[in-house]
Amino acid sequence: MNISAWAIRTPLPVILLFVILTALGLKSYATLPITYFPAINVPAVGVTVEEPAAAPGQIETEITRLIENSVAGLSDIKEISSIISEGRSETAVEFEIGVPIDRAVSDVRDAVTKIRDRLPAAIDEPIIERIDSENQPVATYSAHNSSMSAEELSFFIDDVVVRKLQGLDGIGRVELVGTVNREIHVLLKAERLAPLGLTASSVSDQVAASQFNLPSGRGNVDAQNMTVATKAAVSTLDQLATIRLSLPQGKSVSLSDVAVVADTTEKRQDFARLDGEPAVGFTVYKALGAGDVDVAEKLARALEEIAGTSPGTEFKIVDDSVTLTLANFLSARSTLIEGAILAVVVVFLFLRDWRATLIAAVSLPLSVIPTFWVMELAGFSLNMLSLLAITLVAGILVDDSIVEIENIVRHKNLGKSAFKAAIDASDEIGLAVIAISAAIIAVFAPVGMMAGEIGQYFRQFGLTVAIAVFFSLLVARLVTPLIAAYFLTSPSKVLVEGRLVAGYRGLVDLAIRWRWITAGLAAGLFALTIVLAGFLPSAFLPAQDTGRMTVSIELPPGSTLADNEEVSDLIARRLKTIEDIKTVFVRAGSGSDGVRDIRKAVIVMTIADRDQRKLPLSQIRERAEALLRAIPDLRFEFVNDRGGRDVSFAILSANGEQASTAARAILTEMRSNPMFVNPASSEATRQPELSVVVSPERAADLGVSAREVATAIRVATLGDADSRLPSFKDSGRLIPIRTLAEEAGIDRLEKLRQLRIMTSSGALLPLEAVARLEQGESVSVINRMERQRRVEIGADLAVGITQGEGIAALRNLPSVRALPPEVELLATGDSDSKDSVFSSFAFAMIAGLSLVVIVLILLFGNPLTPLTIVTPLPLALSGVVASLILTGHPVSLPVVIGILMLMGIVVKNSIMLVDFAVELERSGLRRREATIEACAERLRPIVMTTLAMVAGMVPAALGHEIGGEFRAPMAVAVIGGLIVSTVLSLVVVPACHVLIADLSDVMKRLARMNGCGGKPGRSEA
Q1: CA distance 310 to 779
Q2: Which of 586, 589, 613 is nearest to 599 (CA)?
Q3: pTM to 2 decimals?
């Protein structure tokens, strides 16, 4: 049944169908969330255990390894990794895609519960929670109110702002930045404790015991049923200072006799600076599946309301990801519109008929708009990859309709009425149009089905292309013939074959006559292409200008938080001298890896808009790097928006010393290689450590345990663990009470040696009676992966060096080639993503090509015909390689996407040629004449559709707008592949068609001779 003829004769159902689809699409477009990346759901669970002041090596042995071994036995685990810092163990357990996150959390919790009694008693309760892969920060704000202190402003943010924001739909969590928290400090006077027989630990315990209000029962008292509550907590600081402390002799003293009670703030482990000034603020993270732009708008409105009800309060945005997300969306939309306009202009230049051009132009919105509706049903968003898909198919979406309308115009010029021409032309071209769309869908459907985390990223890309092309096919088979039948009323033109077509006829005749030579030359070109492709540089992603730069800094071992403040302020002042840097935001207390360390900080520089800059981004970075290098004893590294570096890898070994030795050797060679810039290791620095070595014999004789020694030191220096601190209630607010030595109480080794430890008999002894002090060094951070020690090494690459070249140079280092069997080198970050993404796409390409061949066999009913149709594929690669060489783009992810796109669209030309040639041959023409005639008739639509697609790609290839760095290499690859494959396939495909058809005839004759004893007939060529 000719569905196009049905649409022409019964137009009302088709009109109603597309009116409904368009309305649904417009509604979906208005409600689809706008995000930067697609929503991904990787089942991962984090286990966090804290033991205040414990050294990383101790935590690794006593906590992390036990947890890793416990969860390793769970099913469907993909990867286990751990980061261990002072007092903290963080283990991430990643499960295979598809494992329900609730089950994953439950399994990990059960595994940790089984070993809970084997973990140290001093730890805080393990925190087990899901790790949200898509929980990305939307914006960071700083708050200011001149009438509030830093502590008051911090409480205002925590009590008012956070509570307000967390009630908004789409906001996941709010993280405080640079806040100052109030604490009640009980500052012990060391010289007064010893004479009274008190220790820091005993005072802390007694203060905690005095601060509670507990329900105690219920009973009938004086004929009334009452609840009974025991209330011991004090209500004022004066009362806290007067509480009595029991002494060993049975007497008591007030707390004020041995300590000073101060209403102050906690000892800070982090801070924030905005342009060198202290900043107090918060970072807002979106919930899973929420739209970045929608959340940012709600956030801005909520903060405006809070500022309106809190006089003097101001909020300033210091860092955000929404600006880039929105700019990428707007630039992709404008690129789509510009490409569509150029494609329509090309159609008009060929057809010279405004009515026919208008019919072709209608196909684009009728294909794109309903696609939004299906995207909403599938839970997609308008993100970088789905927008890339729509931008990419701008020229393709009008392609089917161009083929239809060009054939209708050709039939009309033969003297037929518009109605008759629409029916005959759509019937003639129907199989070719279906085959073209089916081939593209077959190529991109496997991309939407790729497995793993990469598959979740590219699912929306592949399926969006397939959905849009499907609607394009519906438009071409239903709407285009329908409109043409009733609207294409312009006068017919007399068809006159020009000299170009006549010359092309002669060229095709020559190619067919020398078809073996033609095929051989094409094969030789493909071989040359493969050779040249081996010399192309490669990279994971092209460098992108996001309007911001991020650098992670690290101070020398032993540096304090005050040192970090001083250096960070100096850096901020110097960076602000670079005119194009608008703001400098410093967040100290952790590095780019998220590990807590008072020596580290992350600096985010906001750069002026592109059209307002005096310098290109590369020069701004060079100047910033020069300023940072001028600061002595400072380690720094620039990180990309994904938190990684140009090249990164891990050294793994069960033996930590072997891993360290191998990493140091590799790092030494990298520093002497000019290709690598600023290489650094996660184990490059060690921190000073004071070891308290307890003598087991003396401790046993005196009745002192090592745990009591550790507790006494921790309480005297840091206070008790946060989870065990008592609280002071003030106006409904719970303020922690921390007992610790005065600020200068233990500022020298001698004072630490004299710290009093209580024995089991109640006597007090100095610390030096049971232990000796040793000064040394220890690692500040321990990284683990797959239950092995892991040393991470990262480096930037010199100008002009691509990621592929850097990785190849790394693997050729003598130290890497000489790694012992017990040590493994594993790519991480972008280096790992590059390999996994490229291999996933390689599999998708093979699957797509297989599906294309299967679809073509089913449509044409001949197993050899698809061999002719896929001939342009290797020719397209020649164009890709040539375009990359000319433009200097490396082979990156966008280029791979472009090659994938070419697999679907370059077969279009051969489908149109072969389909018409077979049709003419069936009508009685000899094969050679039928092929030449088909080439002459299909020359105009082939050239027209190719130029339309090329024109649709031109705005993306220029890459001037936000996000253009990603789209440009892809568009360049597609344009090069399209042009070269079209030019060559117009000659090679007819020659290969005749060649393969002749071989098919020979095989059939041989089969008849073997089966029936018949005689072979003569060749039709």
Answers
A1: 47
A2: 589
A3: 0.78
CA neighbours within 13 Å on the CB side: how many for 724? Answer: 23
Bridge partners of residue 604, in order along the sequence: 550, 585
Q: 618-644, pLDDT tens digit by residue?
A: 888 888 988 998 898 888 888 877 667
DSSP letters, 802-827, are -HHHHHHHHHTSHHHHT--TT-EEEE
Strand 733-741 with 182-188, pairing: parallel
Q: Could you tell me the two tokens for 794?
A: 């990262």
Which H or E element spans position 440? helix 418-448
Beta strands in 86-166 (DSSP E): 88-95, 127-130, 137-144
Structure tokens at 305: 């309301």
Banded pLDDT at 414 (limits 50, 70, 90): confident
Tokens, residue 235: 């209500």
Contact present, 21 and 370 (Cβ < 8 Å): yes
Please say whether the beta carbons of 477 and 7 come within 8 A.
yes
pLDDT tens figures, 655-680: 888 888 888 888 888 888 888 888 88
Alpha-helical segments (H) within 672-787 = 696-702, 706-717, 749-753
DSSP 126: P
List strand residue ranges (DSSP E) for 120-232, in order: 127-130, 137-144, 171-177, 182-188, 213-221, 224-231
d(CA 805, CA 807): 6
Question: Dihedrals φ, ψ of 570, to 5°?
Answer: -65, -45
Specify which residues 278 forms β-bridges with: 273
Nearest alpha-carbon partner for 635 in 545, 756, 552:
552
Look-up: residue for tokens 């704000």? Answer: 141
> What phi, psi does 88 have (nearest 5°)?
-150, 135
Residue 116 CA to residue 114 CA, distance in Å, equals 6
User: CA 404, CA 473: separation in Å to the nearest integer?
Assistant: 10
The rounded distance, in Å, linking the Cα atoms of 317 and 104 is 37
> Whole-angstrom Cα distance, residue 826 to residue 493?
67
Number of neighbouring beta carbons within 10 Å of residue 162: 18
Reduced to 3 states (helix: H, G, I; strand: E, B; else coil), residue 961 is coil
- How high is the mean pLDDT of the chain? 82
Residues whose CB is less than 8 angstroms from the CB of residue 659 and which lie 6 or more positions away in sequence, other chains included: 651, 652, 653, 788, 789, 790, 791, 823
Query: What angle (nearest 5°) sits at the alpha carbon of residue 176, between those of residues 175 and 180?
Result: 160
How far apart CA 525 and CA 531 sit, in angstroms, is 10
In whole angstroms, what is the distance from residue 959 CA to residue 280 CA?
38
Enclosing H/E stretch for 785: strand 781-785
Cα separation of the two ends of the chain? 33
Alpha-carbon span 485 to 488, nearest angstrom: 6
**Interaxial angle between packed helices 452-474 and 354-377, expressed in degrees from 0 to 180 and rounded to the nearest 10:** 140
CA–CA separation, 504 vs 576, rounded Å?
A: 64
Q: Which stretch of DSSP H or E encloses residue 771?
A: strand 771-779
Q: For 214, phi and psi rounded to 5 degrees?
A: -130, 140
Q: Please name the helix (run of DSSP H) or strand (run of DSSP E) that holds residue 635, with its range, or none.
A: strand 635-639
